[in-house]
Amino acid sequence: MIRVLIADDQPLVRRGLALILAPDPAFEVVGEAEDGARAVALAHELRPDVVVMDIRMPVLDGVRATAELARTLPASRVLALSTFDMDEYVVAALRAGAYGFLPKDVSPEELIAAVHTVHTGEAAVAPRLLTRLISAYVRAPARPRPVTAAPAGTAAPAGLTPRELEIWQLLAAGFDNAEIAADLDISISTVKNHITGIFTKLGVRDRAQAVIAAYESGLVAAGHGSG
Fold first, then answer.
1. CA triple 203-181-177, angle to 5 deg
2. Which pTM does this prediction carry?
3. d(CA 75, CA 218)
């Protein structure tokens, strides 16, 4: 059974989320918190597997509460929720250590699936948000030329090999594992092994954080999107 703590400053939202999760025998809603500080305190007391965390809350906002839990109670994985799915909220939550980010208008089925995904330690970012994150923060050619060194004026993260730099660039451009394998003429299993190494060396947990890291490192050029 997955133990879930719900944190939201609106009682009706907390109750609604609980009513979605509680009937499923896979979940046990162990507590509810009305602000970020209370969420952190209850998480330490109740040790939930997943914390469903609203981003905008009083006393301590969801981003800072997520960062505190990632630092002090990493076994309680955070799934961030927000009415506002602006890119800066997504980036801030993922940087703080959230395992996922969903807008509050997702279906009950999507919420349930995301809690399951986060519980396994995988990333759960709404597809429209991840796609927009890539398009808003990264502008790269459709088939970026493989790189063998860090771009001019930037420093490669310590320990990344030329092949890992190539794969990181393609990953940041939005390519999936099969597309990367085809582009570099290597097997998908080799791509997966390289991506595991890239995540470890960059200190990131998933593709969303790797995209942000590529943007911030200068590996790919920043863009502002079309709108």
1. 50
2. 0.65
3. 32
